[in-house]
Amino acid sequence: MAKRKYKVSVIQLNLNDVAENNLKKCISWVRDAASQGAEVILLPELYSSHYFCQSEDVDNFALAEPLYSTSFIAFSELAKELGVVIIVPFFEKRMAGIYHNSAYIIDTDGTEAGLYRKMHIPDDPHFYEKFYFTPGDLGFQAIETKKGTVGTLICWDQWYPEAARITALKGAEVLFYPTAIGWHPKEKEQYGENQYGAWMNVMKGHAVANGVFVAAANRIGLEKYIDGTEGIQFWGASFIAGPQGEILAQASHDKEEILIAEVDLDLQENVRQNWPFFRDRRIDAFGDITKRAIDK
């Protein structure tokens, strides 16, 4: 019989370092999370490097790695050793000229339970991801692991209710969002509170609308590596929410932390029975959602 309760964890880190050091750091923090009882563990987006998308620079493609190489080998061994599921976001080199912003879902025996490629790719000042990443082609997925059925979406995906809905409809009990989001320092005073609030609210809304648990892992720290710019101040505040949008655990804006919360599938079922949003969906009236715009 499948477990009705299991513990999930998000790890919030400063990752403004080289790949070798970031890998060692993340391995150490995953060990700590597992020692505290975590069974499914999430790292932040593009864990192995600084957030290089602040500029459009072909030299940054050297940060990418082929499938099943360094990151997979290291975390596969770790997952098997610890008996945990690890979600590992990485910069994937699929072939020359095709790169993805991806995440492995590695099961407790070290095998690949699933692979997700980021579907929505942003292009904003200092978030120039379209230069680097081909949009994902594996679709939205609910991935069965030995701990539970999980869905992984990545950062910019978090703004799209369609992504959360489809992943939940496929059976995901938890939506995991590895993330790299922060403030432009010069904008923080004027816009920072609203930007951060919108980020929290949209994902809490996904939890409510779909009756799922939501877990987001963000970076912290100022990453400023381009002359003449102010960089990005990653705002941390990683969190885990329950199926009514209730915050079960939340991190600070500026400290490295491990968050752990329990996924209770009996609670999820009770919430969905009392708020039967899936039952009442008017799927016969939703055809227009697949259009780019609804022209008058």
UniProtKB/TrEMBL annotation:
The keyword Disulfide bond does not apply. The keyword Lipoprotein does not apply. Keywords: Hydrolase. InterPro entries: Aliph_Amidase/BUP, C-N_Hydrolase, C-N_Hydrolase_sf. It holds the Pfam family CN_hydrolase. Residues 6-265 form the CN hydrolase domain. GO terms for molecular function: hydrolase activity. SUPFAM superfamilies: Carbon-nitrogen hydrolase. Signal peptide: none annotated. It comes from the Bacteria. PANTHER family: BETA-UREIDOPROPIONASE, NITRILASE C965.09-RELATED. This is Carbon-nitrogen hydrolase. It comes from Flavobacterium artemisiae.
